[in-house]
């Protein structure tokens, strides 16, 4: 995304959004910082809140601080009210992760649309994406898409 498009997203869409869901690289670009610790994730979220986002969910599935055994994929929710919640799931070592961010955002949106609160919507969406990653098979070359299970209700 070029600089003009990024500025338009920040100025025009952030104030209208219930939650923005950048991954680590997107959060670095938006906040113009390097994310290398959990403290820097907080700093990036605070900058995005200052730019007009009501809530910021920074997807940190590939960021680990400390030991790598028993790794967890941790997403960080920061709210304009000052709350910080984390959503954790076991990290799944796979290259079947194409589409995870879009599926997560869509699942959050679907849950909000049926009247669930933000925290519950994120928790349900995180569980849904974790299942989609864990059941995905290899398809093609490179990063394969996540699996959207057909044997359970969608969020």
Describe this entry's structure for a reader.
By secondary structure, this protein is an alpha+beta fold. Helix content is 41%, strand content 14%. It has five helices and three strands. The protein has helices at residues 3-13, 24-31, 38-50, 100-113, 118-134, and strands at residues 55-60, 72-79, 84-90. Strands 1-2-3 form a three-stranded antiparallel beta sheet. A hairpin with a 4-residue loop joins β2 and β3 (84-90). α4 runs antiparallel to α5. The chain is globular. The model has no long low-confidence stretch (mean pLDDT 86).
Structural class: alpha+beta
Report how far apart the termini are.
29 Å
Beta-strand content estimate: 5-15%
| Poorly predicted runs | none
DSSP strand tally: 3
Apparent shape: globular
Encode the helix/strand succession as letters.
Answer: HHHEEEHH
Attribute tags:
alpha+beta; 155 residues; globular; 5 helices; three-stranded antiparallel beta sheet
Please sum up the structure shown.
This protein is an alpha+beta fold and 155 residues long. It has helices spanning 3-13, 24-31, 38-50, 100-113, 118-134, and strands at 55-60, 72-79, 84-90.
């Amino acid at each position: 995304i070029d600089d003009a498009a990024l500025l338009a997203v920040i100025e025009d869409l952030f104030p209208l959004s219930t939650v923005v869901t950048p991954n680590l690289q997107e959060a670095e670009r938006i906040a113009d910082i390097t994310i290398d610790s959990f403290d820097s994730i907080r700093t990036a979220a605070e900058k995005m809140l200052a730019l007009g986002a009501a809530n910021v969910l920074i997807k940190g599935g590939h960021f680990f601080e400390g030991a790598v055994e028993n790794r967890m994929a941790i997403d960080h929710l920061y709210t304009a009210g000052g709350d910080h919640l984390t959503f954790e799931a076991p990290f799944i070592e796979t290259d079947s992760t194409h589409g995870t961010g879009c599926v997560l955002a869509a699942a959050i949106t679907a849950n909000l649309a049926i009247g669930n609160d933000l925290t519950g919507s994120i928790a349900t969406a995180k569980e849904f994406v974790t299942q989609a990653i864990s059941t995905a098979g290899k398809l093609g070359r490179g990063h394969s898409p996540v699996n959207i299970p057909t044997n359970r209700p969608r969020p």
